[in-house]
Write a structure and sequence with these properties.
Number of domains: 2
Strand content: 15-25%
Shape: elongated
Number of helices: 10
Distance between the termini: 39 Å
CATH class of the largest domain: Alpha Beta
Number of strands: 16
CATH architecture of the largest domain: 3-Layer(aba) Sandwich
Helix content: 25-40%
Largest sheet: 8 strands, mixed
CATH superfamily of the largest domain: NAD(P)-binding Rossmann-like Domain
Radius of gyration: 26 Å
Strand order of the largest sheet: 11-10-9-12-13-14-15-16
CATH topology of the largest domain: Rossmann fold
């Protein structure tokens, strides 16, 4: 990352050439260490600046605003008073293990009076370091220009593009439990295809997806992304793998059924999403997941036409490893095929498929501590008639 960013961004190269202690963190932050400052006693301390990197493409970055983070205490002047006009306040920020020595304690907010914004990263670092390091340099004869460069060429272990969404939102600390998961997505129909799209963009460690069917025209009307006529007739596995393989590492999509004999396919899986239509197929998958003690979420919808309109429900049911058998016995998910399945119209609409997938992913992220959960129930149903969600049972997580 270091060499790539410095070679494509003149302002970052200028920081390096200017002898600042420059580094880059895989959480998409610029790090400038060895920033001397005076504490409240007038003693010499060393801090570090941390600034968000907003990626325009894979190589070119820009600053997001005039603010900056600081790993250190409150900087003071020679007379013992705090350096004025820094604004901001106490805060924290989670960086990667390679930057564990940089512990952010506060943010600063000093906007240039004349222009209202900094020209680039060099301009920003120069301004803040002049304010903060000036008193320490005068009193102790030290320099902020240590020439120390920390080159860490580690790339993001999950995504192939910088995850600027997480760093920009300041939620790096919330993904800790997500990155431990190997997730299976079983079934890539309407809801399953949207669920795959959402999970691909979620920082889970690995994804394994399965579907045996071919990609047809009707699939394009209830799945994300564009339709390439060359995709028609190919397997869904091939179509979706090609669509997403450039986005992240450790993504596999296979053309196969998952049933009671598929134990090796789910070895190492820590969570699963079941997105199939037939009750008999669902029952076989449930048997396997329960036997392997893999927690899972099953999704489904039932829509019907009432004269001139559609009505129905969208269902999201969570099966914890310790209570899956009990939840299964409650009968929320159909586990047998009705006699008229072969003749029935399986009404599915893209926005409802996407909503079904959204409910499932939100529930999963609640279980992993990403979202707050005030509804600990394991069964959620959304009625499109009144746009309300009803819940039942305790998820016994």
């Amino acid at each position: 990352m270091f060499r790539r960013l410095v070679s494509h961004n003149p302002d970052l190269a200028k920081l390096v050439d200017g002898r600042y202690a420059v580094a880059f963190d895989i959480t998409n932050h610029l790090i400038v260490r060895d920033i001397p400052y005076l504490d409240e006693r007038g003693d010499l301390q060393a801090g570090a600046f941390v600034a968000k990197l907003e990626f325009i493409d894979a190589d070119v970055v820009r600053q997001t605003d005039h603010q900056i983070y600081f790993a250190g205490g409150v900087p003071h002047r020679l007379d013992g008073t705090p350096v004025p006009n820094l604004g901001g306040g106490a805060t924290s920020l989670t960086l990667s293990e390679s930057c564990r020595d940089v512990v952010v304690q506060r943010s600063f907010s000093n906007k240039p009076i004349k222009t209202g914004r900094y020209a680039d990263f060099f301009d920003k670092i120069e301004n803040y370091s002049n304010m903060i390091s000036g008193p320490a340099e005068e009193k102790f004869g030290v320099s902020r220009f240590t020439r120390r460069v920390v080159v860490d060429d580690a790339e993001d272990p999950i995504f192939k593009f910088p995850d600027t969404l997480t760093s920009r939102a300041g939620i790096t600390d919330l993904i800790g439990n997500l990155v431990k998961d190997t997730v299976a997505v079983i079934g890539l129909g309407g809801s399953g295809s949207y669920l795959l799209d959402f999970i691909v963009k979620t920082p889970v460690y690995a994804i394994r997806a399965f579907d045996h069917d071919a990609y047809c025209v009707h699939n394009a009307y209830r799945s994300p992304g564009r339709l390439d006529p060359a995709e028609l007739g190919k397997s869904k596995a091939e179509v979706y793998l090609k669509r997403y393989e450039n986005f992240r590492h450790r993504l596999t999509i296979e053309r196969k059924f998952i049933d009671r004999s598929s134990d090796p396919d789910l070895e190492g899986v820590t969570f699963a999403f079941v997105c199939v239509d037939l009750g008999s197929a669902r029952a076989a998958i449930f048997d396997l997941l329960i036997a392997k003690r893999v927690p899972f979420i099953d999704v489904g919808m039932g829509l019907s036409r009432k004269r001139t309109r559609l009505s129905g429900m969208i269902r999201t049911t969570y099966y914890a490893a310790d209570s899956a058998t009990r939840v299964r016995e409650e009968g929320w998910a159909p586990l047998v095929d009705s006699e008229d399945d072969i003749y029935r119209d399986n009404v599915q609409i893209a926005e409802l498929n996407a909503l079904n997938a959204s409910m499932a992913v939100i529930k999963f992220k609640q279980l992993r501590g990403f979202y707050v959960s005030d509804v600990p129930d394991h069964h959620l149903a959304f009625d499109i008639t009144d746009l309300r969600v009803v819940s039942a049972g305790n998820d016994a997580r």
